[in-house]
Design goal:
mainly alpha; 70% helix; 0% strand
Length: 177
């Protein structure tokens, strides 16, 4: 019998929780480190829809979302011996990799179109992750719902930026599309 099955209901394994949250928050920190100087200036120079939030909102929102993702990961990790948990963990890893890929594509390559392709795949994988996670832990799946909502909004925002900037000249040295 797995050791975690012997623990009382509601027992929190703080080390695993901290590691799970820390892993997800690290993805956000890496993305934030990429948003410096000319990349941020480039983004500020793009045409954006009227519903685009102010730049300062992204940090707090993503910090909260990565925390919720970490909680979800912890709940899955705690049930990793279950076959359905393994499938949910694979989906979780896939969406986290796509999440980490969006910033380098959108900002690093200055490619809103590339970013849109990544975030569309991310949205699909988040939906898949929630569906698989729900079978293992409804609580963990519920923790991912705000993330799904924000990725939905971010997808519309990204698509709007592509639409509003489709005729902008390419910058030298960039692969922006």
């Amino acid at each position: 019998m797995a050791a975690h099955a012997l623990e009382p209901a509601g027992h929190v394994q703080w080390g695993k929780l901290a590691l799970s949250v820390g892993l997800c928050e690290a993805v956000g920190v890496l993305g934030a480190l990429a948003l410096r100087g000319e990349r941020l200036a480039w983004y500020r120079g793009l045409e954006k829809p009227r519903f685009a939030p102010p730049d300062w909102i992204f940090g707090p929102v993503w910090t909260a979302l990565y925390g919720l993702m970490g909680f979800s990961l912890y709940k899955l990790w705690d049930r990793r011996d279950q076959p359905r948990a393994k499938a949910a963990l694979r989906a979780f890893a896939s969406q986290l990799l796509l999440n980490a890929s969006w910033t380098p594509v959108f900002f690093g390559f200055k490619s809103p179109t590339g970013g849109l392709a990544v975030i569309a795949a991310l949205w699909l994988e988040v939906v898949e992750t929630i569906a698989r996670t729900r079978k293992v832990s409804p609580e963990a799946a519920a923790a991912l719902l705000p993330y799904a909502a924000w990725v939905s909004f971010a997808t519309v925002l990204n698509a709007s930026i592509v639409s509003l900037n489709h005729d902008r000249p390419r910058e030298s040295g960039s692969t922006r599309t």
